[in-house]
Amino acid sequence: MSTYAVNYLCRELLRDHAFRAAMKADPAVALTLLDLTDDECKALLAGDVGTLFRMGVNGFLMGYLARFEVCGLNVGNYNERMRAVKVDEIGQPVS
Amino acid sequence: MAQIVAGFGVPHTPVFPFFVKRDGPDCEIAKLFGAQRQELAAARPDLIVMFDTDHLNTFFLNDLPIFAVGIDKTFKAPNDEPREVPNYTVKSLPGLAAHIRAAAVGAGYDIGMTQNFSVDHSVTVPLHFLTPEMQVPVIPFFISGHLPPLPSAQRCYALGQTIARAIASWPENLRVVIMGSGSFSLEVGGPRMAPGRSDGVPDPDWAMRVIKSMEEAQIERLIGEATEHQLLKAGNVGGELLNWIAMLGAIGNRKPNYIAPQMQNGHAYGVWRWN
Predict the structure, then answer these.
(1) What is the ipTM of this complex?
(2) CB contact under 8 A, B202 and A91
């Protein structure tokens, strides 16, 4: 599954300090190391966590993007973008 | 023979150690964990078996068991950098951990295992507050409570009963405390966060119903209501309740000494101590 690569990179932000530094320095370069689709790459570089969540990426793991402030994200704008996603009673995205 | 002498339900919010360092020993978190620490000391445990949900740190999406037990002489904690938490080496009892696994597999549960492992804040934060010298060995037992499909509440309760029988059949004289780690209602990093925060409590009414059922020892009611739909409705980590339910299965259907809610976090601090 392609979203696996996005979930994986979120966790690597936590575990791999060199990757974390590379993502903070130039995410467009760092992301070339991963097997991402064009849509995933575009959404990541835009900090569009809402789109990524609708694609099936794990919300808990994406929190690391805000925690480590990569792709222009921080706790504030991450919160706003994620809360803008419409979800059903059990937290699944609805169109 | 080994005997279970107490049960504890604990939160594991990763930022709590930072808050306590910042706010001092009189803050609410320090007092609530402090009270549990006294109760735990009074229980004189030789071992803690902790039901826990790993946050994709010990395991990941490439290898995710529904149930698993950590089997080694020691393990490292934490592996996810919670603020103001030192790096600990925690002792364990691999012989008993393997015995628990074998007994549970024999009873029909397919239990994975991990060796040479580390654990995240969900095991470490409670230990940081309750046994900071890490003098008590710990066996972590992992229940997949975040990513559906979740194991059923009934199965987790029965698993706890099975593990209690395994402990009771261990020939060594050990006083064993069972812990369940986690929240009743919490969303972390998902769309149901509270404004401006990194988390939120989507279903506080459910959290209060959980506490009421536990206070009244209405375990059948709790199990009946704790459907997968309800756990997911309670937040993306709402399934952590399964760790408390497994703990209740292990200690038997008893009324608690107390359960102290912390509703702004959708969790509580519970103590069941009878021996």
Answers:
(1) 0.96
(2) yes
